[in-house]
Design brief:
By secondary structure, the protein is of the alpha/beta class. The chain is 30% helix and 18% strand.
């Protein structure tokens, strides 16, 4: 290791850092932090509270000078161990106090080995594989000098028009909470000082996924009951899992921007939850309180963010330029600043940066794209795929097919299959479906025609070659969807149909009479009702990452079996949005007996509302596909639903069991899902809520008794005043998705 400053050596010796680890590590760290803060000037404290992109600092030499002067505590968007070590050396060896930088990066779903987008990972319903993918992301990022990622994004997201739904785990609070814990554990491991781990960041706190109209950065209006019951639990799960940092969001929540929101950041996060980690703002979100109309200027924005509890400011300079004046005016006190600096220093100590500030510059070559990492990426992709349709069991493709037409703009698009928010993945490392199918079947069996240059292409000049390829093949496989740039931050859409002339391409191929398989790669759920009519089989592959091609090829050819389940509801049309399974009921709930179809209304009908229910005349009340839906090449039978008791107390437990049998001919995994309904409450309750699940693998003909525990605590909700488990009657369903399942009843007693 290179030398560190004489001050820091003295400090470490003083606090016993070079001696055996103290039995009370926290106490020792707190002493070291207190000693450091006592030595710091106000400018150095504000430096620790400031994070910048290197470009904002005016180039490499200016950045080094700012770091040397103690004006920067963290750098983001810098990669490469050699480059990072160079700046770290300035911080550790040339700055007055030798405090190391913490280097941050958006490592969202992979670093060099790119995993499926988080929405795809959620479709796996496999927390273990989610944890593994984030552990791979961490070790790869760490090998290039990254200490901290701005992930996981655990905003509950119910509007597919919002581009960032791709980064989320979908619409359900419970599933998102499960995935939040797994991803935090994957990034952070058991010890943040382990050089193979990085600090995670729970974002965006809070409500950002409910942006009005699905327009990014937009207003969110969320009543407190809904905020606490639907949007906060995943963040509480992350906090309980020991997430190192939180990020305040961009959005205005009920009139108060979240980066200046004392209710969420101070009352809930700090006081109610007792969270002691560090809070960073989102990019310039403190300064953005000015255009929000919540702060008149940077000084006022700094005051509001400081009062709310944001420790570190990302990208903007409201703190650096205004804290001294705020202190002089008595609007904040030095104890507050010291507390925030302590939170930042504690993160650096927990990461082991004081003892090991530098990264081994030989690590990356041995770490990036390791074979084990690619195996995990391929498994994750495979488990994320959701089979939506499979007429006449077209899939898996028969072994004796003589030729396959591979068609579409995403069949051989290595960049786009990686998905949104990929900074460090290289398209050269992506294995596309075309490449993988050629490797499996040989060039002679593949007839490839792109059809469209990209997903947005409107020209039909490539259709002739695509139709010809289909005609001379036994089956046509079309790879459709959206390019990676069409989802993600600031990429909201009002129209969720396939872009360009993709549907027309599908129509032209379908007209050949050949069997048609459609594989859709996308960052969100799309409105694909027309495509379902034209295709025999539809496999939803999301944006599957580096190893998406081999995972798709294996599934098409039957070497793996689909097990993914939808983490979001698929609307028939954009006009149904928002549509999600765990909605509230109305006084006139919809059902088929009272559904009025627009096509059945006679001419000059008398205007009336008697007997009408809550639905759209032109789209009904059901989605295209429900939450939790997903087919398999095999089939499963659910039977013998039993409860260990018909009632329990408010601190009790009921075991819910069913027999699950694989009645098909393939070994396959099924996600057994448990939903409940609280029939009556002091505030209205959702029509269904996911409260547990198990992913079970069975051989053909095998039966397994699946038991899921349902605790009374799982029924708790916020009623506007307190968190309560209320006595009453409940329904429980166990089944294959949110619309199907065996039903039983139980009660909770006082």
């Amino acid at each position: 290791m290179k030398a560190i400053s004489l001050f820091l050596i003295g400090l470490l010796l003083l606090t016993g850092a070079c001696a055996p680890v103290s039995s009370d590590k926290k106490e020792q760290t707190d002493k070291r932090i207190k000693e450091l803060i006592s030595q710091m000037t106000l400018e150095e404290k504000l430096g620790q509270m400031s994070q910048f992109d290197p470009g904002q600092l005016g180039g490499p030499e200016n950045a080094k000078q700012a770091i040397k002067d103690g004006k920067v505590g963290s750098i983001l968007n810098l990669v490469g161990a050699e480059t990072i070590n160079e700046l770290q050396k300035v911080a550790v060896e040339e700055s007055r106090l030798g405090i190391p930088l913490v280097i941050a990066r958006d490592v969202i779903h992979g670093y060099r080995t790119i995993m499926p987008i988080p929405l795809g990972l959620a479709a796996s319903w496999n927390a273990e594989i989610a944890e593994k993918t984030m552990a791979v992301s961490a070790v790869e990022a760490a090998s290039e000098g990254i200490h901290w990622t701005f992930a996981p994004m655990i905003d509950v997201s119910r509007d597919p028009r919002w581009g960032r739904i791709a980064e989320s785990c979908g619409e359900d609070t419970y599933l998102t909470s499960v995935m939040a814990k797994a991803m935090v554990k994957g990034f952070q491991g058991d010890d943040l000082s382990d050089p193979k781990t990085i600090a995670a960041c729970a974002k965006h706190f809070v409500g950002y996924g409910a942006a009005e109209g699905g327009r990014d950065y937009n207003t969110t209006l969320i009543p407190e009951v809904q905020l606490r019951n639907d949007y906060l639990p995943p963040f509480k799960a992350a906090a309980d899992a020991g997430v190192a940092t939180f990020m305040s969001a961009f959005n205005d929540l009920n009139g108060v921007p979240t980066s200046g929101n004392e209710f969420t950041l101070k009352q809930i996060l700090r006081q109610e939850w007792g969270y002691q980690g560090m809070v960073v703002s989102d990019w310039a979100s403190i300064a953005e309180m000015i255009p929000h109309g919540y702060a008149a200027n940077k000084k006022e924005a700094a005051e509001r963010a400081l009062m709310a509890g944001v420790d570190m400011e990302m990208a903007s300079d409201c703190y650096a330029g205004n804290v001294k004046a705020l202190l002089d005016e008595g609007k904040i006190d030095m104890a507050t600043i010291d507390r925030y600096v302590a939170n930042i220093l504690r993160l650096k100590f927990d990461l082991g940066l004081f003892e090991n500030p530098y990264t081994d510059e030989t690590l990356a070559e041995k770490t990036l794209l390791a074979e084990k990492h690619k195996e995990i990426a391929q498994q994750a992709a495979s488990e994320s795929f959701v089979l939506l349709q499979n007429k006449n069991e077209l899939l898996p493709l028969s072994n004796d097919i003589s030729s396959v037409a591979v068609i579409g703009p995403l069949a051989d698009s290595p960049h786009d299959q990686m998905g949104t928010w990929v900074f460090d993945g290289n398209k050269e490392n992506s294995v596309t479906p075309l490449t993988a199918l050629k490797a499996k079947l040989g060039d002679a069996k593949i007839n490839f025609a792109k059809g469209l240059e990209i997903s947005r292409t409107k020209s039909t000049e490539g259709f002739v070659a695509a139709v010809e390829a289909a005609k001379k093949s036994d089956v046509a496989v079309l790879f459709l969807g959206e390019e990676s740039i069409l989802s993600g931050e600031a990429h909201s859409l009002a129209n969720l149909n396939l872009q360009g002339s993709q549907t027309e391409l599908l129509e032209a191929v379908q007209a050949t009479g050949k069997p048609v398989v459609v594989v859709i790669m996308a960052g969100r759920q799309l409105t694909i009702a027309r495509e379902l009519q034209l295709a025999d089989a539809v496999l939803y592959a999301w944006h599957p990452g580096t190893m998406g091609g081999p995972a798709i090829a294996d599934m098409l050819l039957g070497e793996t079996v689909p097990s993914g389940k939808l983490p979001v509801t698929f609307p028939k049309t954009v006009g149904q949005i928002p549509i999600y399974y765990n909605h509230k009921n109305t006084g006139r709930p919809a059902d088929y007996e009272q559904w009025t179809d627009i096509n059945k209304i006679p001419a000059e009908a008398t205007q009336h509302s008697l007997g009408n229910t809550s639905h759209y005349l032109d789209a009904g009340f059901e989605p295209l596909f429900p939450f939790g839906f997903g087919l398999s090449y095999s089939s499963f039978d659910y039977s013998n639903l039993e409860l260990s008791a018909n009632s329990m107390g408010t601190d009790g437990v009921i075991e819910v069991s069913i027999d699950l049998k694989n009645t098909g001919k393939y070994e396959a995994a099924e996600v057994v899902q448990l939903y409940i309904r609280d029939r009556f409450g002091s505030v209205t309750r959702p029509v269904k809520q996911l409260k547990g699940y198990q992913k079970v693998t069975l051989k053909p003909g095998e039966t397994k008794n699946v038991v899921i525990q349902l605790k009374a605590k799982d029924l708790e909700f916020f009623n506007g005043k307190d968190y309560v488990v209320e006595a009453g009657d409940f329904d429980v369903w166990v089944g294959t998705n949110s619309q199907e399942g065996l039903h039983a009843e139980f009660s909770v007693n006082e």
